[in-house]
Amino acid sequence: MLTTRIIPCLDVHRGRVVRGQQFSADKDAGDPIELAVRYNEQSADELVYYDITASAEERGIFQDLVERTADQLFIPLTVGGGIRTAQDMRRMLMAGADKVSINTAAVENPDLINDGAEGFGSQCTVLSMDVKRVPQADGSIKWHVFTHGGRRQTEGEAVPWAVEGVARGAGEIVVNSIDADGTLAGYDLELLAAVCAAVDVPVIASGGGGTLEHLFDALDKGHAHAVLAASIFHYEHFTVREVKEYLAAKGIPMRLN
Amino acid sequence: MIAIIDYGAGNLRSVSRAVALYTPDFVVTQDPADVERAAAVILPGVGAAGDTIRGLERHGMTEVVQETIASGKPYFGICMGLQVLLTESEEDGGTPCLDIYPGVVRRFPKGLTVPHMGWNQVRQTQEHPMFAGIPDDAYFYFVHSYYTDPEDTALTAGATDYGVTFPSVIAQENVFATQFHPEKSAGMGLRLYENFVAWATGARPGVARGVRVGP
Description:
A: alpha/beta; 10 helices; B: nine-stranded mixed β-sheet
């Protein structure tokens, strides 16, 4: 049986892991490779490195980190952050990443999704979206897509954007709820369920997994195919294994060995 | 020497690093002559069937792959390295493949989440030295939208369920080919590389030097 994936996400700044809190980097949470190895030993199903670095020089540090990680770890590695062009995607894949996640650049230039899918394959082209509930004049709520690390609101809405992304060739969708990010208040379950109902590729829940119940809800009520989480693991609130054992006991198929 | 065929489809870093854990005697090559000289061959692959076949043709690798399989040299196919062995693939509007095993590579039926992505179990349906040290129903990492449907069901050495039951391992004589990615499957996947190196070098499986690789 296909198991549900638990994916630790490491936000990386100048070669170190940091903890994101409402999208502003703060506390140092350790050495990425040390953490990656530990998560692998705990049966993490994949890993994500998210580069929150700004300068071109620091991008070199990130690429070097991806190479060193891929040389030591034999589970899938997704990288994201700062990917602007097909050339950026190629560079990360050649460094050893298995998938590349694109976000702001895909909103600004949706053809980048097609370029990734046609050039490297849908299986390594991940569309990640930052989404926030925005109250409308008529009192209703819409899920707007935000760019630039959640700072800039776009007119685009999450569900149609996910559908378009898949039509353009994205092989996986990451839904990151800004309302919940880093605050550990839980995933946006309605949003997840709406995206999952609209597309036929795997959907990964991201942002706001603070408790074991949150993770379970994202899979059970949100229907996500995988959950991505950061701080719940970094500070050892729970190990990956504890999370997986909990979810397995609740009936979610998990790889435990 | 083990030849890892590089037909330009992307990064073979993980495959070569996995092999390097167990032997220094390998080459990642775009040269058919290296493949002819090799004692054993690995054909990895990601991406689409059309690109794979075109990439093999461009590098003059189609015939040498067929010769490898006919020669009796150990052959380890991974993902596309499995799919290309059949007659044709439904991918890219129909792609003729190497036709070593009659059969079709089919798209997963509608209604399933595709790609089939993540860790799934492999039920061993043949005994095989490549399975040494790997328990039945062990988990491996899959990412694919098409699956092989060979006419000869006796080719199946491992079966996996995802909406349909499909061969996740095909094995016959010197050929062992997996739909999943052993180089992305942590300890169990590395065990396959270890076993292949043992097979390729005539050593007993399971005696290559121990490496700490996690679960």
